[in-house]
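Sample intake sheet
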Amino acid sequence: MTLRQSVPNIRVAGLERAARMAGEAFGHEDLGPLPNFSSQAPHTSHLVWLFAALAAVAGFAALILR
């Protein structure tokens, strides 16, 4: 029993080459400098952690009292 390929080898090779070139193009993008987070107020991250902890405690309490 012979299998027929729906796409000829030439097209597959072209697609593989295009994918490789696209991958190389994305792999060599220049990234900008990372933002400096030390300029933010240091207490903002503490507030985020506090609200996350309060939400977690409220969620656990809701599960226990259910």
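Comment: The radius of gyration is 27 Å. Residues 42-64 form the longest helix (23 residues).
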